[in-house]
Task: structure prediction
Amino acid sequence: MNPIPDPNTISSVSGGIVMLGNEVKPTFILDGQPVTLPSRSDLLAYTSAVERSHRRWADQPEEPQPPLYDLALPLDQGPNAYIDTRGLLLPMRVSEFSRQAAEVEAEPKDLVGVILAASRTILVGEPGSGKTTALERLAWLLAASTVQTALRQPEAAPVIPLYIALKQYCGEADLIPLVEGALNSAAVFAVNTTSARLLLHAQDVRFVLLLDGLNEFGRYTKEGRTAIQRMLANYPQLAVHATCRTADFNPDLETNPETAWLPTAQHWQVQQLVDSIRYWDDEEGESDVRLYLRRHLGNGKGKRLWDRLHGDERLRTLALNPLLLFMLKEVGGAQDGDLPADRGALVRSFVHSTRTLGAIDDKHERRKTLLVLESLGWRLQQERTLQCSVAVFDAVAGEISGVEVEQVCRLLVQHRLLLEDREQYRLLHQLVQEYAAAAHLVRQPDAEQKLAELAVDEWWRETVILALWLEPALQRTNFLQNLMRTPAVDLRVRVAAATLLGRRGLLAWLQQEDAGYIEPPMVKIPGGRAQLGGDDPDAYQNELPSCWVALEEFDLAVFPVTNAEYGCFMAAGGYDDPSLWTADGQAWLKGELALDTATEEQYRNVHRVLRTDIEQAIAKLREGQSFSDEDAAQWRVFAGWDEDEFVKVLAQDIVGEQQRQPAWWDDSRFNQPTQPVVSVTWYEAMAYAAWLSRVSGRCYRLPSEAQWEWAARRSRRRYPWGPAWDEAACNWSGSRLNAPAPVGVFRQGATPDGLEELAGNVYEWTLSLYQPYPYLADDGRENLSASGLRVLRGGSWYTSAQQVRCAYRDWLNPGFRNSFTGFRLARILS
Result:
């Protein structure tokens, strides 16, 4: 027996003390009591069990044949599922986490490579992107590799994956109880809390913790962070890889060692699938979707489904999510009927498809099975868990009249909606559970009241959103508007309600008039003596000195111009009417615009800064916004360019021939009817104002910089809503929406006059040329025909809190487009 120093504190044991026997179970003395650990052979038997248990994602072919897993013997050909971390069928690509939508996508990296090359990682992704599958696949891969390595090199230290679902966490001081459960799950050996603690110190074994669902700590959030940090402190040799839903991941907290889940961890986000081909047989583009459909449906059926997906932008967007593509394949692969166009309808169609419950011939049996599924989903959501015991399942099923519990259980398992896992049940995916709960909810007579109550709780977020999509009776204008306008409601529920209003054409003021235009709601701003800039601890030099400007009364739009409004301008031929455009705007459209002196000098100055000290420049660029290592690499390349070449390449976005629509118009992240229009130049905003003035008979234009700040800051407010920062009052980088929000969901950020979203969401073009203070209205800065940089105000969905202050000034070349700039209109009173 081996004595252990300091027997009262297992976590203090040095890793050099604990060694495991190959065949014999080693025993240690702790506090006078023997503690027996598993041998290396026991741990290898455990890894074999792990390798077998994580085959559950095998997606069986339509014709009976051996599971594809069994056909994939080489290690680089993992089991087929709707996502394949080895990069064969549906590669999971990741990039460094960024809350800013990049103009140029970051270079993707292979999931397995980036995780196995690091000791600590957090994988961030949307529901259905494959986070859980990725960890299970990693568990399989590590276990299978360890088993095969042991055959070739018996002396090699085994790598033991410990897959841990954090939904099982119950407020313990550390994660040892979950480790204990994972080690005992295979029933190969038994450990207790003491032996589990001691085992993690073994020198001749490497353990890898795979923590699934940081967002599932729920009410134990603070305790959960502390538990993970304590594990890292006590067992610094552990490799730890975790997953988290995007909506629950706060990168600002992760930069602080005291609030981070995994201090020093690398943060990776799951990229959408690639589908860049123009047609099915296109040899130039790349398409994960085509590869997947061809593999599972064959060339004929695969092409038919791909064509249908590309006929609807919403369906094409759904297909870029691995789980939803799997469901689209299941739902649409064998039939030519209508495909569901939203996530709720898609999951419902999947549950009812002929590959799942639709395969049950007896309609009464099918109905009862569906009721059990929905009731189980509701019960699991109520208990805030993703699994239940056999007894709980039996109790839920037994509450439904006429249900034969064993028969229903068999049907759900047979049709892949219910998974058995060591005397525990869980549904196929958390999204299926949330759908089932939503389907149960909408059947209740008080569904509207319950939904409004649940909408304030982030645990219920996806269930509530699915319920809104599922039930037309819930899509009443007043109900949706109340949801989107209630600050206590979860932000993403508010966004979903506003999106539904836009898609259903229910938002009254966005209804297109018979004349073919939409006038925005306006607020009257009284004239007065406006203060611009001034003392502020966060003020930039361009906000000084403070100055005063006399302004006449004017109207300002409550919201930025939306896609629905801008679409009217496009439909009316606004891009083809030169009379609406300034002279420079016409030249910009034709690609004949000369680069103005101010912008050219700005580009040259940027290049000089890069050449002087590229690393210092990169450090500066990282301040206040997301800036990945890929971004840094690109800027290092820029630093090596010739100055004239740098200016020429950057200028192409401005002086090249332009599209007749906003740059991101076809991107579903930015083109919802109620979202502010983005990627419009100053010239486009000016042309839109001229067009609306003509068709409405009222004088619309962009506000001047002074008008904008006066409207946002009257009574000397620091923010549009008041003197103090409120992170919930606007859409900024900390909101983690990673896109512009539909207008109207940040009511709490309104000015006392009722102007909304002056802070965050989108930067807004103003009339004014960018010039230093003091502001003089007659010094040429309001000259509409002058060349030069134009002022932007308000911050956006990716900027920091510092940049959404009322006095903050930014600028951009009037011919430049990006995904965070839009505009709102002023109206001059006659």
Observations:
- Confidence is low (pLDDT under 50) at residues 1-16, 57-89.
